[in-house]
Design a protein that fits this description.
This protein is mostly helical. Helix content is about 75%, strand content about 0%. The protein contains ten helices and no strands. The longest helix is centred in the middle third of the chain and has 28 residues.
Amino acid sequence: MGRPKGKRSPGYAERRQELARRVFQTILEDGNTSLRAMAERTAVSRPTLRHYFGSREGAVNAALATAACIGRPHQERLAELPIDDARTTLTDALRLLVMGWRDLGVGRIHEVGLKTGLEDERTARTYVSDILEPLLQAVERLLVRLVNAERLSPLDTRQGALMLVSPVVMALLHQDGLGGGGIRPLGIESMVDTIVDAFCRAHVAGSGTQEGRELVGTLGR
């Protein structure tokens, strides 16, 4: 007797998760999100991908959800950095972002999330909720710790996270994702120092006092 209509076969969820991981790996390797490319690289047919994900957008959406699990330890590490000194902490945080982007495949995840998210509303929600927001919230948590330890003055930590992360992500997209490094190279390491210096001048604890002004004055030297 055939399976009742709408009832999934045993092991469906496990097989779907396995395929999502394989699709994610193919995206990391070459960034190609066509259904044909994903099917060829995962060694299954396009009808199989449609069976498990519904569409090309569904497959990419599932792959991004898988990527969120992989990126979580990196975000936890960023959020829990030592906070003895605000400048050192924030510099380390942004350098971790650059390292993850370039060396751990994080950049490819963001590139694909932006590309497909602008084309598909459901993928956009997955990218924002599972990839972009966890990064921003990790930086927010770090800023909250710095404020609570009086290393930074009170500030809107959500806005602060956006101020720190946005220019670095834009620079990485420009240099790596869009090939701007071959058109107009940019030293992102020195840019990180400039961003942190400016942020600390505005938000380092006690910056309005003589002691604070002397501290902030050393940041740009």
